[in-house]
Amino acid sequence: MKLPALCIALVGLCGIVAQAAERPNILYFYVDDMGWGSIGPNAQAERRAKGLPTVKTPNLDKLAAEGINFRRGYGCMVCSPARSSQQHGFHQGHSFSDRNDPDNAKKAIREDDITMGDVLSDAGYVTGYWGKWGYGGSKDQENPTIDNIQTLPTSHGYQHVVAELHHVRAHTFFQPTLWTAPAPEGSEGGLYLAPNSMEPWMGNDDYPDEPALQNHPNYPKTAYCDDVYCFAALDFVREGGMRYQKDGTPFFGLLAVQIPHAPFDEIQVLPEWDAAYSDDSHFSELKEQSQEWAAMVTRIDAHFGNLLDALEDPNNDGDKSDSVADNTLVIFMSDNGGPGGANNTEFDANGGLTGTKGAINEGGIRVPTIMRWPAKITDQSALKRGTSTDLVMDVTDLLPTFCELAGGEIPLGIDGVSFAPVLTGEGERRPRDFLIHEAGKGNSIIRVDHKLIRRPKGELELYDLAEDPAETTNLADKFPDLTDALGEILTAERVDEPKGFANTYHRWKGKDGEKLSEADNWSDYVYSNAGITYMEERGAPQLSWVGRMINDKPKPQMAIASVDVEFLALEVGSVSAGSQTLVISPGVTLTGRNEVRVSQGGIIDIDGGKVASIRWVDVKEGGTLNGVGSVEGILYNKGTVAVAPSSGEGILEVVGDYRESSDARLVLNHSGVRVEVSGEAALSGQLVIGAVPDRSLGSVYKILQAGTVSGRFANRDDRVRASDGTELQISYEAGSVILEVIEKIELTSVK
Asked: Do residues 602 and 627 make contact, with C-beta atoms less than 8 angstroms apart?
């Protein structure tokens, strides 16, 4: 179980099983150290056309032909940071894991970090994880132990598991045992060690003989672990497909194989290990390491083919009428770029990009990425099947994407941004202004086509990735202003913090009327395990805090921001009958760098103050942003935004865009107040008006001024009746919304 504050945050995820039939299954193929150029659309198809040596990936080629190839998909630079950012959606500047490190097996994903498994299991998905996890266990080959229960896959929502917990133990494909769940009752961490063997699948005609050749007399007793991972995943997909057809329960499976990470030569232990290349005239001329690497990649591609076939025919009876492929999102991705070595030079495995695994250059962080979802990615969709896109996508974006597709709430303050609207063609994707990556040998920021690299000694490099994806021409001296601006953002994203720095989680415990900035009103954060305290954060709010002010008492509660306060993210809401209000005093700025969220039962009252974010202020259904003052950042309104000065005229200034959903309300307590938006005002909700000072026919009021206005309010016939009975006509002019009095109706009280 999570801590109480986290339980509160996940309340919205628990009641959505009724939507199961509409939600996609998700099958995620995750490979280890496979360079960007290792798949057909990025480099191999072109090499094949030129008669050059290529790696065979027929199933991935088919997946790309039926889906979308993301040419600008990004992972991280090495193993542990990639898996952490994948699971919890924070980049390395905010994550506890910003490099490979012996302690990462114990500490990288904390109990409080909300992962893909947490979100999807709470959303009613059946979840599975097979392969390299990387955290929570010791590296001993013969007698490994569980060292940190809170960082295990079974502690983060994964119900069906066959995995290796320590990334060093995964440096062989023949470790004798694998961690497995479900486990017998009483097993530590919900896992037990099972023999690494193909025996459960041997001799079973329901399973393909390729690529594992499990019935071959020379197949080793201790299995090649990726074969076991893939066959366990195959069981899961078949069972999940049949369950989905029966009752609509969706599944989420993440197959995180060790291929094609070193050691390469272990594949030669397997019978007929190079059979796929028996007809390849180039193969015998390649260096041994290249041959091994190619055989590994083709082997895992064949496993992917088995899993894709299982989506088409879950019960394996030859009748595809039970196919679940149409509503299954399949994702293929690597954790980081490929390493140097013969395979990189002889196959161009990194596709001509500069750098290799571990580097902050594109060759270290840009990764092959494919997505297929036949129900949504079609010949008519915005992203057409069988094409490549240069849409920038980061591994941190997958968690919020899965949340949105599952119908759940996106975890507070994460760096990733959902691209579900891009896949579904429904709604609008929120902006992703930049990507941050941190490596042991530098850090980088990517904003659209420009990338700034800062080396360990402070050297700066600026590249235009659209014109120069190989990063050959440093533009830093040519564009000093852009270089400085990107450098400032990079610093603010905390990539320069010492090893072991991370965001921390805090909950409000103050009484009614207490001050937001007082340390005693917030819970401390301590992360420890087995007598070792890895980090602690006490005191007043800081820019690295993810804070939640959630009222669980029956009576309304209030807190006051009397001085400037900064968070990484802050949520104000309630899980009780009593609301939770946060008052921003005049002249005071409340900052939530990644997000300020006003959820159900929450009220932020801007009494002449400011709410600021570099991304957005999010008013959810049942939440209210009230008062006059300013909002800096995009203001998303799915609840109520009320411009309600205590007296006289008032303005709510939005420095950014204002975007409504159809459920939203914009409430003006009288027609003499207005909203001023520096960017776009995208309207679709209901306009509500209080009193009208001058009710003379023809009186005109400007209630909204914006850079541009799109959409319109949902009011019937573009009319709104004020609380005093005045009928007003809504009209839309260039950059403004106008009200005109067209009828006066005297309201009389009922006695």
From this structure: no
Structure-block tokens of residue 610: 């400011």
Collapsing DSSP to helix, strand or coil, 445 comes out as strand
Spell out the alpha helix ranges (H) of 407-450.
Answer: 420-424
* Total number of domains constituting the chain: 3
Share of the chain above pLDDT 70, in %: 95
Q: 437, 443 in Cβ contact below 8 A?
A: yes
- Predicted pLDDT at 244: 97
Structure tokens at 203: 């001799």
- Average confidence (pLDDT) over 167-195: 95
Alpha carbon distance 672, 565 (integer Å): 31
How many residues are given for the chain? 751
- Domain assignment present for 498: no
Per DSSP, the three-state class of 130 is strand
Task: Report yes or no: 332 and 60 within 8 Å, Cβ to Cβ.
Answer: yes
> How far is residue 32's CA from residue 297's CA, in Å, rounded to a whole number?
10
C-alpha span between 586 and 629 (Å, rounded): 8
Number of other CB atoms surrounding residue 47 within 10 Å: 17
Sign of the alpha-carbon torsion through 356, 358, 361, 367: positive
- What is the domain range of residue 651? 504-743
* 3-state secondary structure at position 83: helix
What are the tens digits of pLDDT across the range 56-94? Answer: 999 999 999 999 999 999 999 988 999 999 999 999 999
518 found inside a domain: yes
How crowded is residue 127: how many other Cβ atoms within 10 Å of its Cβ?
27
